[in-house]
Design a protein that fits this description.
This protein has 19 helices and twelve strands. The protein is α/β, with parallel strands linked by helices.
Amino acid sequence: MSGAAKAGDRVRTVYLIATEESGDRLGAALMRELRARLGSNVRFVGVGGHSMAGEGLASLFPIEELSIIGFAAVVQRLPLILKLIRRAVDAVLAARPDILVIIDSPDFTHRVARRVRKRDPSIPIVDYVSPTVWAWRPGRARAMLGYVDHVLALLPFEPAEYRRLQGPPCSYVGHPLTEQFGSLRPDAAEQARREASPPVLLVLPGSRRSEVRHHAAAFGETLARLKRDGVAFEAVLPTTPHLESLVRSAVASWEVQPRIVVGEQDKRAAFRIAHAALAKSGTVTLELAIAGVPMVTAYRAGSVEIWIARRVVRPGTVILANLVIGDDVIPEFIQEDCVPDRLAPAVRDLLGDTPARRRQLAGFAKIDDILSTGEQTPSGRAANIVLDVMRHKGGNHHSASSAD
């Protein structure tokens, strides 16, 4: 059967669950692509945020109820989380969908998927955004065989990891950042500013409150050391509206006052003129690499978090951009190494035309080919696989079980 809707086709029900803003955006793009293929013969139900609501989804509950950060908060709200998991499972079963698509947020969505599979094995399940099985808890990949029919990966190395770990079928569909290359890369005037003096140094302490608190002092003192050593630079600190007041109070005592820019548009503008960056490890490393901004990365966490991480995280797998490039071109300073004595010389090394800077830029030059999805958009590729799984695995109108 082709991807286009036919007059005689019955209406397909797609149940989607996304509980974070990033997943909500992915879900909305997937809904658009599925509607383009199925027209009026598709119905969407599930859990999502503003973007998915804009595509016509009436969410089972507001996803803000699940925006929890920090172990203590999770423990305090555990009864609510368990209640919402039960609600979601019951709603999926009541909807009898042709497919269930869980999007990221594995601590919530995978619990729903396992329960749905146990109670109705005929519902195909696709997981959009792989959990980080390549970094920690690799046993999850094999466990997913029992309740996930296909994984849609955002990172090109993930399908090979699923084969190695004996997990469910996994396809690389593309990272959403591949659709945003233009907004991250400089035009001629911005490139001229990137190469001018003083160089723009991005300071990126993190996107969560705890991350800002953990990194602020070390990052502020690093800038001070550079200034005292006579290094000229213009510090720019992009942040989000909900973190702005925290960031302003955190940097108030800094010897070097960065220019604070707020919001995604101004962040992208800063990336386009930046010469180098000091950043907390995370997705931002891939954004910086795509933008062509050499960086020093750092990570500091609470003692309990770091104790757990050192026991379960595979070494050498922390920097996303390095994983994508396949080479450790970006340096990282974790916990006791996340100190100005180590950070300042590393940042200084990237502000000049040095071997370290050139090595990073050479690595970044490979990213377009590595992340390429050909002519199709990531959401288009994702939609094709969702349709394929839905048609071949059954759904509620077929008796065959899709449990592996």
